[in-house]
Amino acid sequence: MNKVILMGRLTRDPEVRYTQTNNTLVASFSLAVNRRFVRQGEERQADFINIVAWSKLGEFCSKYFKKGQQVSIVGRLQTRTWDDEQGQKHYITEVIAEEAYFADSKRDGEGANPNFDATFGTMPSANPSSDFEISSGDDLPF
Fold it and tell me: Which region, left, alpha or beta, applies to residue 19 given φ > 0 means left and ψ of -120 to 50 means alpha?
């Protein structure tokens, strides 16, 4: 099984490019993920993880994710190699994003993007003037 779950802060705004073959959108960014433990007398260390998001997810990330924002990414680990023009081999390990979530608290994220509807991805709250009744659960028939 190859599954990665990360929570961290974006080190830069997502960078968007398109593939040459079929013009598919690819968003790339890096997350600073704090290490769990801190040695006494030292500052907290962070790992900088490269993330790649394709197509619709990449479009979402490029539109709503900004430098410094805390996000959560679920995906898979992938390694690649390639040879440059001088024939030198390069290796890279990155996370291919399959899911992306906002992880800032509402207070932290307020005002970050005025064009973003803060209710995105959440259930609508009960509206007292709606046609639905709010029940305590005691009068349910099951």
Answer: beta
Please say if the pLDDT value at position 46 is more than 80: yes
pLDDT at 60: 96
Residue 12 belongs to a domain: yes
Does residue 114 fall inside a structural domain? no
Please, what is the end-to-end C-alpha distance for the chain in angstroms?
40
Q: Which residues contact 34 (CB under 8 A, 6 or more apart)?
A: 8, 44, 45, 46
Residue burial 43-59, b: 16+ Cβ < 10 Å; e: rest = eeeeeebebbbbeebbe
Quote the mean pLDDT of the chain: 82
| 67 neighbors 32 (Cβ within 8 angstroms) | no
**CATH code where residue 65 lies:** 2.40.50.140
Q: With a cut of 60, say whether residue 44 has pLDDT above it.
A: yes
pLDDT at 111 exceeding the cut of 70: no
